[in-house]
Amino acid sequence: MFSTFVTKLFSDEQPTTTSKSTVHEGYKHILVTGNPYERGYSHGQQAKDKICTNIRQYSTSSSLPSKEICSHYVQKVYLPAIESLFPEGLEEMKGIADGACVMLDDIILLNARYDLSRVKYSPEASQKFVGECTSMAYVQDSEVGKVSDKVYVAQNWDMSPWLHDLDTIIILESHSTDADGTGQPSVIISLTEAGQLARSGLNSCGLGLCANSLWSTEDFSPHTPEYEGKSYLPFTLARRMFLECGNFAAGLKVLSTFPRHVSGNIMVGSHTGLAMDFELSPSAYFALHPTPLSIDSSAVLLTHANHFTGAYGNKDTYPGGSSLFRDVRLFSLLRNVKKHVVKSEPGLKPGLGITDLRMVFGDHAGFPRSLCEHADKGRQKYGAATSNTMTVASVIYDLSKLEIHVCKGNPCCGTWQTYSISR
């Protein structure tokens, strides 16, 4: 089961239990149990109003194609891949639809909204919408050859302010009752939009994941004769499939092989002390690995924003903007905390802590399009993206302790909540 704590930014490292009256300050926590359909049905019932709001918002959003085009892609492009590759996910989405009294197509649309947003716009036209998210992975080893003391996968999630203002994001805690003793996770906790199976998350096997947007010249809309009859899996469902895996290698296999027609970035980690980043294009993946924070430290760190940093950079269509400094800024701030040094100063506990990450994710260098991005951008004359985004949530997955720390809205001023999975 889960336990919940609420703390304010810059509080002590170990939060204290508070009354339930404070829980409303964060995003709604939804607990579901049973087989895939039962879990979905409970999700749909508990988050019905939020799901309907998300459907309404995306159905009228200028970032997605028309309702007719979305329906075509759901039925002809996404559904066949889901049926073939992730039937349990399809059952769960059917349950969500029934529980919320909406159409299955609408739930698939919510889970494919990232991919559908690329159908309407060419890579060049999409450049005015770029932005979204800064992620990281951190591993701290106490001694060589021993299990890592600290493994974090974390990010600031930047999206349209209405997700925050209309309160349509949820913390979905899913307990499976169909475990067959094969080592698969029995619990998954994810931060996601109501109606989605997962956006980022942590499972009871100690695997965690965060995601960022990427754009490349390979991204395409699969409606031409060349792609007729081919099916593709939405990124959101591939993330959930990773969280359904019981070990890191299996999860990496999912991410490197799932069929896709757009690019994206996924930061992953394991409680065993492994972490890496996947830059994904429609035809390839590029793996990035953490680097040591200093020569006298056993800590390693990896950060990422919204542009390709690996071998695929020559096909990146990111036009410039905050992504070009957010990942470097995050790395620099965490490196300069100095608590990662094994032979630390007297009184300093080795390794970065949750409070350190909370503080750094509230950084405002480059404001307002900073690590902690605010909705009010003021007057922008030149070089401004037409889309307006903000940090709708900051989330830290502690894979060693199986905890999720999440802040609703900007981490510089929000309230943090903690959920944990019992071992």
TrEMBL record:
Name of the protein in question: Acyl-coenzyme A:6-aminopenicillanic-acid-acyltransferase 40 kDa form
Matches recorded under Gene3D superfamilies: 1.10.10.2120, Penicillin V Acylase, Chain A (3.60.60.10)
InterPro entries from the UniProt entry: C45_proenzyme-like (IPR047794), Peptidase_C45 (IPR047801)
